[in-house]
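User: Teach me something about this protein's shape.
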Amino acid sequence: MSKIVFFSIPAYGHTNPTIEVVRALTQRGNTVRYYSFDMFRGKIEAAGAQFVSCDAYLPPIPKDFEYRTRYDFSSLISMITHTTVSMEVSVCTELKDFLPDCIVSDSICIWGKLFAKKMKIPMVCSTTTFAFNSDTAKMMKPGIRELFHTLTGMPKTNKNIRLLRQHGYHIKNMVQLIQNDKETDTIVYTSRAFQPLSETFGEKYTFIGPSIPNLSTETVQKERPLIYISLGTVIRNPEFYQNCIDALRNSDYDVVMSVGDERHIALLQDIPRQFQVKSSVPQLQVLQKADVCVTHCGMNSVNESIYFEVPMVLVPQQSEQSAVAQRTQEVGAGIILKNYKPENIQAAVTKILSNKEHYQKNIKIIADSFRSAGGPKKAADKIEQVIRCYR
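Assistant: First, the predicted structure itself:
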């Protein structure tokens, strides 16, 4: 059996999809060590892996971390660079002792990629977004705030590149580190049918569909349509949630709304009785019952909505999510909102419910491609194949 190391960033959308892949590998007798963060310890250990905490290597989290995550690429790169340099000596020493057969690194987990290259360990890239190359990059048109921070942050980004070079990492630019390439074996957590410009990605890419855990399917009898609303675990937007309340307060729908932070519930005014407003909910269970999902278009949320054949109202918050939203609308699985005024939210939900069969027919095509893509088992097969090639 093999020894495999996983690296990811402290983000649910990048870590959660890997859990079932880890489980598939450990169930086959492989030893998996996962360098991650304390909030994921329980899930990782439950999947059979050795958990190694990386929290001590993180820089202090700024108060405006959520804003930076959405708009300020240069600040995000600074945090990632700091983490890489902080953990380099300790983790590389551990890798020398552990002698893994393969490293599986998230596509934007710079330290995992750099350590694999430095230690000359075979690597598989784990891509939880759409695969990203020079062709698909054209789909991601930055907004004004993103463009502003990119331009004003160039000196900071260049400083981080120089720092990494001083530590012996030969890189040209940050895009080189984050963009998928033609040489690296890569797992993508969607299907070729949903991936934009899939023809530009060769045989090195293995599209496995969403990594969904086994769930008991619930048959639910509902008297009223159920609307599920969420902007994910990072984005906080009380104004948006208030607009959803105002849009649907007089409707004949039940609404489950996940706002991400208990403190924001107190900011919402006059919540109707048909609304359940919580800081978080078990999303997969809710989607099995939902008729419409109002989403920020994070890749996991869109994948999971499609998997359970739930049409979407699409409210992207930044350029990557805009690309996901555009593709989702292209395949007929949802409607993009140009703004989130209450009347527009209400109109989009009504349009989908009035044409639900049409949307579900479109979604089923992609959902079927997800279910036939191979899932975590196919990802495990790919990782083991890469290991065999290097032995």
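Now, about its shape. Residues 208 and 375 are 5 Å apart (CA to CA). The radius of gyration is 21 Å. If you'd like, I can walk through any region in more detail.
User: That's plenty for now, thanks!
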